[in-house]
What does this fold into?
Amino acid sequence: MIGERVIGYYQEIKESIRVNLNTAYENKDVESIHQMRVSFKQMKSLFNLIKLISENEYDTDDNFKPFHEIYKSAGYLRDVQLQYAEFEKHLTTKDKPYKRLLEFLSKEEEQAFDQFRNEVFEFDLHSLSFIEDRIKVAVKDADEKKVLTQAVNFAQDNVYTMHDIFSEGTKIKRFHKIRTLAKETFYILQFINQQILLTQLVFINHAKLKKLGVVLGKWHDYEVFEKKVIKLNDSHPMFKEPDFLKLTSELHIKKDKLLNRAIDLMHKDGQVVLR
It folds into this structure.
């Protein structure tokens, strides 16, 4: 039954969260924090699908509420970890200004991790099972053909929305929405692909969609880091030196290259993520 497969998919997400949450809490593991956030995104995408299945009786926001704070704190920690790793990788730490920034980011990472651990401490793991019980009620009488059709339509509607947003122009704000839709659609396709051959029903290029999501994800990371460095330039005297202005320029160039790659993907063959 399709309802059991929906529950099975949720159980995979639940187990991934449980395992990665423990590892992240114990040793601040970068990959575990990343995978935990991916699982929460998969969860939210599944909730949106269940909302359709239940004809809007299942409320996505209400059911995600127990996980919102831990998801948000993990996102902040993830951002700082990426910034530290990126900065350490491509800049010379022998330079005093850059050393100061690394020290600043190191302290910020510790603060972010403390905040994350507090949220983990407050987090009730039983809420994962409580939500599972709600899902069982929402999908118990689900019709397989109808669910798969709804899932396919949901994914395709997201893709059409992405292209509609893109056709309105290339303002930065629009690409944040496209990024969110690309990731949500990719996660829905993961579920569909477990049930049927993707090529049979879905006229979406899975590989191109994944690439678009990855490119816009990296673009978003640089966008966040650039804003942070600009804010530091404005508020901290020690970050007003020419080296930091140069850093802002470097981040802006990298960010723009990624954005241009995303634009190329959206332009290619007119409908990048459609076959």
In short: Confidence is low (pLDDT under 50) at residues 197-201. DSSP finds eleven helices and no strands in the chain.
